[in-house]
Input
Amino acid sequence: MTNKESIEPVRPAQLAAESSVFAAYLEQFGLPTENIIATTEERGVIAANLPSFLSTLPSDVKKDACYLSKFVGATAIGLFDAALNYVWNEVVLCLRKKAIIYGVDLFFDAAVGGKNRETFNIEDDLSGLKDTVLLESCMKLELISDIVFIKLDNILTMRNEIAASHPNVESIGGFELLGWLQTCVKDVLQEKPSESAIKIKALVNNLKTRSDVIDHASLIRLQSELKNLSPAHVNNLLMTSFGIFVDPSSGQVLRKNIAEISPTIWQFSSDNIKYKIGVTIDSYRTNLHQEKLEKGVEFLKLVGGLMYESLPSRNIALQKLADDLEDAHNGRDNYYHEPSIMKDILQYFRSSADIPHDALSSLVQIVLRCRLGRGLSYRRGVSPSGLPLYDKFFGLLDDEGITECIATLYKPELNSKLRNPTCQEHLHEVLQILEQIAISERLKQALHYLASDVKNAYKANVRREFRELMDPILQWPLNS
Output
């Protein structure tokens, strides 16, 4: 047992000066010293470069930046993982503030799918979203750019990987930590929401507070503005308009104004969001929400979308299951909840001909996300029980489904994962499965091209030889 009187007090200056001093202090108590604090050299990197970065920040940014003070303190001691946590927590708070500025109702419409939407209503409910969901939703709604999303997604992966709850603690370099600090401060904490995001918030607020029916001139002006909004904003606006229309508490004037603008919103919205509305209406029928069901069907009549209500029940069910799988993947204990949902999905088809075309994109995207995993060391980031089920799904695809897989790899929410070595291993395994079942020689060559250099697969879409292979058969995502 350690004799307290024999312990020599260590001054803060000594702790900051030499890592060995702090390590020796821990050893006196029999505490671990490996991978606890950064080396003196790495702390020296921070000490030499941090002052110049801090001096570039405006005084109003630094005045209340307690997280920066904690960052400085943590790096001085050598607790780089704690320093990263302080910065990341501030990023999360900032993204939540951006969501509030955008409007929590609008934000939750985009961030939360299926039956869980009803449990997210107020600002405090933002804390119930996982960081990865918060990030992806901010990217989809243009509260952050695609590039910033990729950077933050990488930081989040590292932040999760070095957390104390994981068995393998990775070390962080001084320059690496400074780079992450710069990204978080410059690209997020000092950045304002896009102009279009603010316009959406203002539009919804004006509709909710307006006491008269929208006039023709205002309607024409609104229709003109809708044409210039990004697809993500239009899709979210459609889902929000639908939610307001079917809400029993909505007044007659508000519902009339929604009826006036919704046909134009519908015109510029994607099929995925239209099918999602069809699934939502079907859930009203299942759960006996008669008033919402009637208003939902009325909404489809107003926008000329009854064909989306009459989709085969199999397609509607698969769309809902895709949402459920996404919710499970983004939720807690996803390793245990994903397999049961994936089993339900696989019950709907035995061959590629059984997979509805309209559900293919949603299914491919979420199953790929689950199969590539989170890029963590624990269980290689993928549900052990779910992995063979995901492989079975890919083994059922035809050339159309394989092409959809390739296109999905270059969507921002998935493409950022392809930079992670663990995700790259999973991608190589998926590519091998697809290469075995592909019929088109062009597709086979494309899959072989990706598999032969999987470390650079994330940027193959900008290489001439790969695009020449795929251009005749693939309409690239708009942001590829």
